[in-house]
């Protein structure tokens, strides 16, 4: 019964989306208030019906209703209750239901929190979201219905949730990632609405910024969490694999980062308008492309869902309509946009263009690296692989100029910057960072160029950030009390850059100075790695709710003193007949100790993999700091819409004329 | 003195047994080479994993072969060539350079070049035709409103 | 209107990508062509799995069109294709087995050659025996030379001893009709 209710509720949600796509847009074009005012209630309806469908599916999981095909495929009576709730997004159909739920949530958030935005703009934005939503809801109803029944013959027990997904990181990773992906739909809708209305001005940029920041914060956290999960759960100590699916989430992040910066310029200086709109379209398009890549089975990836060409065709059709349509609209409307401000070659504007160019070429690297194997094969040239060696090489080339611009940008003024002043700051910063790297590496043997480069870049960013804050303080001339005068969005930038510096530091250290050993051990034996003695105590049997397995116990000593006890597990999930590695990690600020249990050897020894990973937490810590920076920026009172509208109305008229 | 040290070391190594590596290497350099090769070679049977990160039988066989070839003194490139002979370009994560794949390196380069050129050209021909007064007025209005807000 | 060209660029790029994505939907990303195609089989010298005193080399493929089938009793899919392969043998197709044992790893498991022979006899007596003989690749080196990634895999080898086709996965009626038969008939003439 619940399944039918849920299904029906989804049909109603589709109906809401269809109405939302038509009436408010019609009203906005004709200037009819009543029609425009339908946008909010329709959006709320869309959300409530989707939420109800989602609750129905969750309840079916909790009730172990295996007459529903999706539940039978992704759950089991032995599965703990909390994993039964998260199993809702453990497979293709349910994860798409989560996707549309989050989509509806964003839409309703726009409806609720945009009181300050003129009604015609809001109506258009929500109508655009409605149009995109029609596609999503049609797809879930026609091609991937999670409520399909297995009647009359249904299994007594389910096939269980993929063991890879039975982990805390997996509980929150997909929702965060989807919040990011789908969040860009809001930015997209704002851009398209502005193109349709022909009003692309500073107010548009100001309205889009908090939404962009929100989506970007979620995406940043989602990606970082995914990386942390892979590190812990795959058992190979890796944190990034350049897998097509990871790339699919990285591309919108890169473009989203570019968009954040160019929105700042468009808002403050009214330049790069057409470029910013393109980025807003691109960020969402790449999110959709990522969905397509994951769900069509077109690429060989660790994470892909079971492939099904009809689903692939459906999403591809959706892609053509949404992306193709919006790019066409862009091509028709964008040439009319004129940028207003003037700036010299040495100015903050130029630095930010540079930032955008480099971020976009990084996106291009990832896009081509992901898709070229496919193109190569379709051209009849044979199968090739593009992986870490290629991407690592390209990103090293890109990061150097990128950091140089990152250091120069905040130190430069808008419009025009004097070369001499900037040069002095830069030289001082560079000198200090080189000195710091020298001190940090004193006494280390086996120095790696890559590590030195990464550390220098990271420290330089940190120093430049401090220089910039000092420069601001001396401008307001209040000493340290002036710190309060800095806006939250300014602190957001500071944190964003510091977080980025931390991530670079982590990446440089962990890729260059990680040590690992593949060893065979019997109880009582030990292995010494970087001064850490890992003593193997033995292996014990292990029984969990839906798995059995082994747990290896080790003590870690430094100079004879015990500092940690590690338990590395190997689980055998009985229903899915899958072996999973649960690595033991002793986390630390400057290093992780990491042990993964391998196979038992014929002579009774155990194979173990032992790693020392320096500074690996900095990678995710940096991401968390960046996300915090994004949150701070969002809290800036400039974005409190209600107040804004009064200030912006006369201005938008003027700006509209000057376009 | 030296003899004593050796004896001491021998004694120590008896009391705590050191674990044996699955693959024993003569030098750190060789171990590094092994690590790099196994991370750059793709497991032909798996979803998308290098042979270092895979437990598949074929990945284990390839790892063992890499080790054997290293022991025979083969270089990095020779080992990659050996694997490509058997499993094609697919087995190596660094794509081969040909007219189609050249785009991988040239594409981003052309993009950066083109974009920089475009910015320089467009910056020159801009801003003269704009109504500067109107713009200044708009800006002033926005700023004064903001100043008011900040005071509130 | 001159300026529109530049703004159409993203759309053009997107449509180009779409074209390839569409094409990609209908091909299997896991199909990888063998690098041995149209090359002579690699040299080897391996014993018969049933009788260590009998040695085989590449010359066993001379003058006859042969299917070389890579298999093992531990492999589930291999068991599925055995009846069909036996049917083919009855139609006069020459099938040679390349046998390898998962359990023969020096580190993991310790199956003796006697056990392996007993397993093979049991399997083929139940499901049918398509093989003229089985080459025993104990170290799996020859499999690697053939570019084998797992089991089952099947090679079509012509009268000059060159590899003409490499199929990964089970060989069934459909695969035989579509992929193998046309080339097999052409080579057999």
From TrEMBL, chain B:
<comment type="similarity">
    <text>Belongs to the CcmH/CycL/Ccl2/NrfF family.</text>
</comment>
<keyword id="KW-0812">Transmembrane</keyword>
<dbReference type="InterPro" id="IPR005616">
    <property type="entry name" value="CcmH/CycL/Ccl2/NrfF_N"/>
</dbReference>
<protein>
    <recommendedName>
        <fullName>Cytochrome c-type biogenesis protein</fullName>
    </recommendedName>
</protein>
<keyword id="KW-1133">Transmembrane helix</keyword>
<keyword id="KW-0349">Heme</keyword>
<keyword id="KW-0479">Metal-binding</keyword>
<dbReference type="InterPro" id="IPR051263">
    <property type="entry name" value="C-type_cytochrome_biogenesis"/>
</dbReference>
<keyword id="KW-0732">Signal</keyword>
<keyword id="KW-0201">Cytochrome c-type biogenesis</keyword>
<feature type="transmembrane region" description="Helical">
    <location>
        <begin position="102"/>
        <end position="121"/>
    </location>
</feature>
<feature type="signal peptide">
    <location>
        <begin position="1"/>
        <end position="19"/>
    </location>
</feature>
<dbReference type="InterPro" id="IPR038297">
    <property type="entry name" value="CcmH/CycL/NrfF/Ccl2_sf"/>
</dbReference>
<dbReference type="Pfam" id="PF03918">
    <property type="entry name" value="CcmH"/>
</dbReference>
<feature type="domain" description="CcmH/CycL/Ccl2/NrfF N-terminal">
    <location>
        <begin position="7"/>
        <end position="141"/>
    </location>
</feature>
<keyword id="KW-0472">Membrane</keyword>
<comment type="function">
    <text>Possible subunit of a heme lyase.</text>
</comment>
<keyword id="KW-0408">Iron</keyword>
């Amino acid at each position: 019964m619940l399944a039918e209710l849920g299904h029906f509720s989804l049909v109603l949600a589709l109906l809401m989306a269809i109405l939302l796509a038509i009436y408010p847009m019609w009203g906005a074009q004709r200037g009819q208030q009543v029609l425009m005012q339908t946008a909010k209630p329709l959006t709320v309806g869309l959300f409530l019906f989707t939420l109800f469908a989602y609750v129905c599916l969750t309840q079916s999981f909790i009730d172990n209703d295996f007459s529903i095909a999706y539940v039978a495929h992704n759950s089991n009576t032995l599965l703990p209750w909390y994993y039964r709730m998260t199993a809702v997004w453990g497979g293709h159909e349910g994860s798409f239901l989560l996707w549309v739920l989050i989509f509806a949530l964003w839409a309703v958030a726009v409806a609720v929190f945009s009181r300050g935005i003129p009604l015609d703009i809001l109506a258009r934005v929500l109508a655009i979201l409605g149009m995109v939503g029609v596609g999503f809801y049609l797809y879930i109803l026609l091609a991937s219905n999670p409520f399909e029944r297995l009647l009359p013959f249904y299994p007594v027990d389910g096939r269980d949730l993929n063991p890879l997904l039975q982990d805390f990181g997996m509980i929150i990773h997909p929702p965060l990632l989807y919040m990011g992906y789908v969040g860009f739909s809001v930015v997209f809708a704002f851009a398209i609405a502005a193109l349709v209305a022909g009003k692309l001005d500073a107010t548009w940029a100001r309205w889009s910024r908090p939404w962009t920041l929100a989506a970007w914060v979620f995406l940043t956290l989602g990606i970082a969490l995914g990386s942390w999960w892979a590190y812990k759960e795959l058992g190979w100590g890796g944190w990034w694999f350049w897998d097509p699916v990871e790339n699919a989430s990285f591309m919108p992040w890169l473009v989203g980062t570019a968009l954040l910066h160019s929105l700042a310029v468009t808002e403050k200086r009214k330049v790069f308008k057409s470029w910013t709109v393109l980025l807003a379209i691109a960020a969402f398009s790449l999110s959709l492309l990522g969905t397509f890549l994951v769900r069509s089975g077109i690429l060989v990836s660790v994470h892909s869902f079971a492939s099904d060409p009809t689903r692939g065709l459906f999403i591809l059709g959706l892609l053509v309509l949404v992306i193709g349509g919006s790019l066409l609209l862009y091509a028709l409307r964008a040439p009319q946009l004129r940028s207003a401000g003037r700036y010299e070659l040495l100015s903050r504007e130029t630095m930010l263009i540079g930032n955008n160019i480099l971020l976009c070429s990084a996106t291009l690297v990832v896009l081509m690296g992901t898709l070229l194997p496919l193109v190569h094969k379709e051209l009849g040239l044979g199968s090739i692989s593009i992986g870490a060696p290629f991407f690592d090489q390209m990103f090293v080339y890109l990061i150097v100029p990128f950091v140089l611009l990152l250091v120069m940008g905040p130190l430069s003024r808008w419009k025009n910057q004097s070369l001499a002043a900037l040069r002095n700051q830069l030289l001082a910063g560079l000198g200090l960072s080189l000195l710091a790297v020298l001190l940090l590496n004193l006494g280390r043997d086996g120095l790696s160029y890559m590590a030195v480069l990464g550390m220098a870049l990271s420290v330089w960013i940190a120093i430049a950030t401090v220089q910039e804050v000092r420069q601001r303080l001396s401008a307001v001339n209040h000493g340290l009390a002036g710190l309060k005068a800095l806006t939250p969005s300014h602190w957001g930038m500071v944190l964003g850059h510091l977080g980025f510096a931390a991530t670079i530091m982590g990446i440089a250290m962990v890729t260059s100075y990680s040590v690992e050993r593949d060893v065979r051990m019997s109880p009582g034996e030990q292995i010494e790695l970087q001064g850490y003695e890992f003593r193997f105590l033995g292996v014990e049997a292990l029984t969990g709710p839906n798995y059995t397995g082994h747990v290896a116990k080790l003590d870690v000593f430094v100079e004879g003193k015990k500092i940690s006890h590690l338990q590395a597990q190997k689980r055998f999930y009985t229903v899915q007949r899958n072996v999973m590695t649960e690595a033991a990690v002793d986390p630390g600020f400057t290093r992780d100790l990491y042990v993964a249990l391998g196979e038992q050897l014929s002579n009774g020894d155990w194979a173990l993999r032992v790693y020392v990973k320096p500074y690996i937490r900095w990678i995710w810590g940096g991401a968390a700091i960046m996300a915090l920076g994004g949150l701070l920026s969002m809290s800036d009172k400039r974005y409190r819409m209600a107040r804004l509208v009064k200030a912006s109305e006369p201005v938008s008229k003027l700006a509209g004329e000057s376009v | 003195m030296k003899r004593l040290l050796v004896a001491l070391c021998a004694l120590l190594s008896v009391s705590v047994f050191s674990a044996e590596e699955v693959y024993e290497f003569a030098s750190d350099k060789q171990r590094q080479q092994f690590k790099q090769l196994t991370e750059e070679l793709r497991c032909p049977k798996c979803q998308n994993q290098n042979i270092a990160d895979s437990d598949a039988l074929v990945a284990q066989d390839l790892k063992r072969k890499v080790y054997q070839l290293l022991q025979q003194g083969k270089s990095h490139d020779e080992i990659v060539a050996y694997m490509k002979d058997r499993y094609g370009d697919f087995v190596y994560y660094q794509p081969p350079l040909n007219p189609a794949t050249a785009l991988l390196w040239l594409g981003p380069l052309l993009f950066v070049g083109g974009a920089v050129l475009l910015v320089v050209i467009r910056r020159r021909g801009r801003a003269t035709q704009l109504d500067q007064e109107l713009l200044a007025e708009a800006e002033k209005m926005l700023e004064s409103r903001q100043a008011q807000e900040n005071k509130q | 209107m001159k300026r529109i060209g530049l703004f159409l660029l993203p759309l053009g790029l997107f449509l180009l990508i779409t074209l390839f994505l569409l094409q990609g939907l209908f091909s299997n990303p896991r199909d990888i062509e063998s690098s041995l195609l149209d090359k002579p089989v690699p040299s080897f010298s391996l014993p018969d799995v049933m009788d260590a005193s009998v040695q085989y080399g590449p010359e066993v493929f001379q003058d006859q069109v042969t299917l070389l089938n890579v298999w093992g009793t531990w492999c589930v899919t291999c068991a599925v294709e055995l009846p069909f392969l036996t049917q083919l043998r009855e139609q006069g197709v020459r099938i040679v087995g390349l046998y390898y044992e998962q359990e023969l790893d020096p580190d993991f498991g310790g199956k003796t050659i006697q056990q392996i022979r007993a397993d093979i006899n049991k399997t083929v007596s139940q499901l049918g025996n398509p093989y003229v003989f089985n080459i025993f690749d104990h170290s799996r080196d020859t499999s690697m030379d053939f570019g084998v990634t797992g089991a089952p895999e099947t090679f079509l080898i012509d009268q000059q001893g060159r590899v003409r086709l490499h199929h990964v996965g089970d060989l069934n009626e459909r695969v035989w009709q579509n992929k193998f038969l046309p080339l097999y008939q052409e080579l057999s003439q």
